[in-house]
Request: fold
Amino acid sequence: MAKKAPQLPDFEQAIKQLEEIVEKIEAGTQPLEEDLKLFEQGISLARQCQEALKTAKRRVQILLDKDTLKTEDFSESTTET
Reply:
């Protein structure tokens, strides 16, 4: 049976994990090697969040581009009599 790739946390979970990592590192209670492992995890989570934000920004831009309404000013239209 093939192994599934580990599922990445969603944006909110990744931010929460990142905050927890920062708190642990700032506490300074772990050995240096543990801090380095936490730092590596934090960098990975930060990159994941950055990609999620880029994707969201692209989606918003696409929606805005599609939904841009073109308006015409009919107040100056001439009517034939």
